[in-house]
Amino acid sequence: MTEIRCYLHGIYPRSEALVAATRDAARGRRLAADVEAQRRADGTALVALQREAGLDYVSRGMLTWQDLFRPLVAACPPWTTGPLRRWFDNNTFARAPVISRVAELDRDLFAAELDRDLLAAEASQVGTLPGPYTLSRVAETCADRDMMIGALARGVLRPAAEELAARGAQVIHLQEPWLVAHGIEDHCWRLLSAAIDCVRDGLGALVVVHTYFGDAAPWLDRLRALPADAVGVDLTETDVTALSGRWRTGILAGCLDGRSSVVEDAEETAALARRILDSAEPLILMLSSSCDLELLPRAIADEKTRLLGAVAGLLREDLAC
Amino acid sequence: MLTPLLTHEVGSLAKPAWRVKTVAGRPLDEANIDEASIWGQRLSVEGHERLLELLRKPALAATDREEVRDWSSRYGLRFFESAGLDVVYDGEQWRSEMYAWAIKHAGGFEPRGSVRSFDDKYYSKAAATGPVWLKAPYHDKEYRLLRTAAQRPVKVPVTGPYTLAVWSFDERYPGSANLATPLRERRLLRREARHELVLDIARQLVRPNIEALLQLGATWIQIDEPGGSTEPDEIALMAEAYNACVAGLDATFSTHLCFSDYQLFFPGIEQMTGCAQYAVGFANDDSRELGTSENARPGYRVIRRFRDLPTPPALGLGVLDIHTDFVEPPELVRDRVLYATEVFGGPERLQIMPDCGLRTRSWDIAYRKLANMVAGVRLARVALGL
To answer: Which chain B residue shows the shortest CA-CA distance from A259?
Structure first.
């Protein structure tokens, strides 16, 4: 029988109070300590919300991360932050990491970055990292991007995943939007597969490879052959019928639109998930948002978080019958 | 109007603390008043003693606060004039922010909350919830002041319809939210909804606002589309909306694009009619090393595409990176200009500007950057024998 899990991944939006505190601090109107206090309050509220909603793994929401790459850049000293780059087709920008050479992650520096995010002494059971393929493509570099896929996994992502797991992460969520937004060349699949294996082998945490901001249908045969515990699909961009067939991995269904302020209907979303259960029969079905909820205001993200737990509850009721 | 190597600003400038606090009803401290005094003298803002009087009042009436906004506008205007720019505006001192200000004056939108733009910068995002309409022209007040106060020609920046749409949620068609609906059908619904929203904003909001400006005597309108390349398959829609804003109107119209993969704009922007200038940021992607060779100017390689546009329009060449406190030396500006001149086969179709609005920089940094930009253009003129 398929197990149902649900969790939040990636960066969670900051509260209006934290946005205001951060803005005030930047303008010298408030102390940095006030910002940290508000961040702790945001983090505590987020953890409470997830517990109340019944999510299976609790995320700290990466509230200190300015984008998906910044803490890794800080922990790989030869790397620097580069120019602003549009984050796919969104009105949000990330600073591309400038990778002069693939470095080894400095675990102490990375730990310090993580500890900034753990001020409330609450472990994050979800650790989100850029996937090796996306990181190799987003980077500003003169290096061979294909060769970087494995090197990044070995030198940076695996040690980062170990640090996250050591701090309580039960899921390592690798974000791979590039793969479906821009595609992947055939020869890269072997490299990606080896890179995922490198991150996951003996890690002691589930590894989910999540594609989003694009239609996964053309790549699903290759995606479900990856050595991951689950493959994530953005259902706002992928037809649910494309998921039918036999799955060797679990499925993460990105069934809540992380880019729309319209809050989905719980029954409709549960019905969508049931179709996946019926047509794909994965060992594990994880429910989450199509992409990070960071692209929504906090209040709407909170509503969607509650909905996520409700949808999982409806599915479990079904399975129990 | 678009003379060779003419210098201009692009849009916003940081709001002084005395303006922000006053409008928000917060108390000022002595440093804020000192700042108003120092910049008033530095920029030779005539009559700025009146502002200092206002700021020293124990309590400000609503009319006083309006007057402070006017002063902020005058300071912004003199800021650019004093830095030596040929065409100026006020750094959008009257506006809250380029998106929020327009949406505040539009019917059919509701606020939803803050969303990150980049780093720790957020913007207030609204949702389109009904028919779009213009509550009242929203740049009239500032323009009335500036047309009389300006000592140099002015260009009015206006947020473009595509950007207003793509920076908003669209709740007018939640029917596409059911993910069980076939993807092809959902995509079609999304596309139709976006098309309708963008053109509604163009026709019912931006165009009447522009018409009001033209009636007041505005002669150069810059339609800002920083969101222009958000969805590459919608460039033609951005162009269609631009045309809907300006068709049949008599003025100089230009557009501003920034922080994008500019290759995505081609060939879509060829459909924009009557666009006299594309003001585009490039310095963000360029090297800080001197040099006028192809390799020395990686941020500017794409300018050929703008050169080869059929009309052919002018190019507003962004030469200042607005996201860093690095103050570009005049020689670096010069080399960027000379490289572009070489690519364009002459300076006739080039104007010089910062990559984008300078609102994220302090006034001190912004001023030094702009002054160096003007100095750099002077060096380029000498090098070109102009």
So the answer is: B169
